[in-house]
Amino acid sequence: MVWVLLFVVGITAGAIGSLMGLGGGIIIVPALLMIGEYTSWLQGITPQNAVGTSLLIMVATGLASTLAYVKQRTVDLQAGAIFFGGSGPGALVGVWLNQGLDADAFFVYFGIFVVFVSFILMVRHRLKPLPLKTDGIQRTYINDNGKETAYGFSILPAVSISFIVGMVSGLFGIGGGTLMVPAMILLFGFPPHFAVATSMFMILLSALISSGAHALLGNVEWLYAVVLIPAAWFGAKLGAAFNQRLSSERLVFVFRLFLIIIGLRLIWQGVTGG
User: Membrane-spanning residues where (predicted)?
Assistant: First the structure.
């Protein structure tokens, strides 16, 4: 039964993560912790185990999504590589910070972050890009209707933001797209589909670094990963396929409520110690 449950968690995390550019860790980490708390199946799993295992799954999710988005020609590979210049070192800092957190502190901080994510999802589609600056790297995108859209970014702000995103990823075991996608849309004028696709490419690179570091520290539950990885891979393929066809407003609304409940529960658990 536990393997079926883990498969469902993996496919759900992969699909929603790919669809929204989140990576899926925002689902996997609390799911593993709560399964361990409320059942006898994953007893003894620590926040470090949940984060390390989640980041390994992010490699599968990021790779599956990136391959699918590359076929759709919505990944800005150069921009993703530049962003990784910040997110890679940031991920290692996050892994280091994660090691110093006990379970109660992790629950409180992660719960606060989850509630913050729900707020970001609430306003994400209302974001309007700031006026495009003429310095830095410039891009143009022509959509299916032949309309040309300009976007671009300066390297220093882009690397600085991606460093914070990478640090949060290594600390909490999440992809970081929750922060990166709105930043790319609002600050750099990325078309939404390009922002999601490029975010997943950056998540893939960052997850490789941070999951490797967690694996060296013994924080990866390999047996659980054997089930979660193929499920997340398949789910990510589904999410990428639906990204350009599905109006996700209703899904985001339900997901946001779910995150608020989970976040408040984690905060309560951390504050009360149980």
Answer: 7-35, 50-70, 77-97, 103-123, 149-165, 197-216, 222-239, 251-268
Closest CA to 273 of 105, 101, 75: 105
**pLDDT, the chain, mean:** 82
- Look up the pTM and report it: 0.81
H or E stretch at 48: helix 47-72
Say how far apart CA 161 and CA 6 lie, in whole Å: 33
Q: Give the pLDDT of residue 117.
A: 80
Alpha carbon separation from 211 to 105, 203, 225 (Å, rounded): 21, 11, 12
Query: Which residue bears the tokens 């922002």?
Result: 195
Domain residue ranges of the chain, discontinuous segments joined by +? 2-272
Q: Output the CA–CA distances (angstroms, integers) from residue 253 to 14, 114, 189, 196, 272, in the order listed.
A: 18, 14, 24, 18, 29
